[in-house]
Write a structure and sequence with these properties.
The complex is a heterodimer.
Chain A lengths: L1 H18 L2 H24 L6 H31 L2 H6 L4 H31 L8 H28 L3 H15 L14 H5 L2 H14 L4 H31 L7
Helix pairs in contact in A: 1-5, 2-3, 2-5, 3-5, 3-6, 3-7, 3-9, 5-6, 6-9, 6-10, 9-10
Chain B lengths: L1 H21 L1 H26 L4 H12 L1 H17 L3 H5 L5 H30 L6 H28 L6 H15 L11 H8 L4 H11 L8 H31 L7
Classes of the chains: A mainly alpha, B mainly alpha.
Amino acid sequence: MSIFRIVWSGFRTNLKMLGTSTFFLLTSTVQPVIFATVAFYMFRSGGRSGTLLYAALGAGMMGVWSTTLFGSGGMIQWQRWQGTLEIGVASPPSLALVYLPFSLANAFTGMYALAATLVWGRLVFGVPLHFAHPWLFLLALPATVVSLGLMGLVLASTFVLYRYANAMSNLLEYPVWIASGLVFSTSILPGWTRPISWLLPPYWGILALRHAALGGGVWGPLAAVLGLGLASIVVSFFTFRWFEHLSRARATLALT
Amino acid sequence: MNSLRVFFVGGLISYRALFGWLTPAVYIPALILTPIFQILLFAYIGRAAGSQGDEFYVIGNSIQYASVPCIFVMSQTIADERFFQTLGPILISPAHRVPLFLGRALPVILNALFVAAFALFAGGLILSITFSASSWMRLVPVLAVAMFSCTGLGLITGAIGLRIRETSVLSNVLVGLLLIFCGANVALSSLPHWMAEIGRALPLTHAIAAARAVTNGATLGQVQGLLGKEAALGIVYTIAGFGLIRFMERQSRLHATLERV
């Protein structure tokens, strides 16, 4: 019951805080629309207009990843600036549990990105929103978002130790977009990148969403994305404990 | 003489302060590695879309990404003065405003030039695109003009930063709009007419076209029209930015928003 209360109140508080951040709202709505627009024109100029829904889903997922990433980096950094990181560390629940709802709220906000790109694609580019498996799409979407949020939790744990979390966030944005093949098939990437893709929830998430929207097997990618989400939560509990200990031992928790 | 000192020494100190706080741990991920990944992302989307060759995206994105240092750094150079409460002492100094603010723009241009050149080199290397020495000789002045014009736009955002707090949001939007309109990833001929016209009024568009032409063997003389338009846009943006700084400075004093962070 207590765990549920921590998760729910943390989720609700962070969602309210994110709603007041112009930067975060920009990242979750305007930026994906910009990338979607570029992708739409690129596919159109290449004579592949039939893949516009493919591009819209990919650009939306780019936004989900960006909000997860910036949210994860930002939540630690903001707490550090506001002097509340130590309070979170000192509280009785484990740090991973304290930040789990924050990560989930970040990823939830990321759904704005997918909604924004789909609506933008429909209104401006006339992208047909006919989903092959609409119910599976509705199932795959929250599963993907939650899984990305849990991966964000692992990243957040490293940001406890790393003072320049925002710079790290910037660095991880494009590589994950590329390795996950959000707007193109990973088959065109060099073969050595394949195992990296397999370890990334966005890779399986976009496959699940793409197959649900355009046709194809959804259950396999869905199981993989959920499996990676569960793995992330286990890993994050260990990494939070480890990095929290290191930052306390080195007295770097409050360094801005 | 004093103006020259304010221009060079003031600009240098401002630059050192900015990057003293940013540190290499921020500089390298944000300005060295990220542009390379942006090039790779769009090159792969381009391959999937079947629209353009890799060289198109290497040139377009390396120049477009330099808008990040131009716009962000220029606006931060001014906005951070406010954040650190040093804007007041600067603005009450008797120093002439032209060398004061343009001096801050010079290191930004040089930094952006380095960012664009490195991205061009590294992105090309990864995608097996080599530019000949003679191409590089022609590219450097093209890049310099591009960075000058884009820094003019950064001066405008910096000026707006004297009045509003969310300069990073504004800078992000502008960088995103450049991504769509300046022909970095979509040729202007593939954009609707009105979008192409907007693109022609923005910095970087003509420089990107010029850079693509010189790497295909055109001489600087053959792209002087494009470079002339880019430089003219840079002058217009710089004058507009400087005028806006003076206006916003007066407004900040009038509304007592100078030190609002």
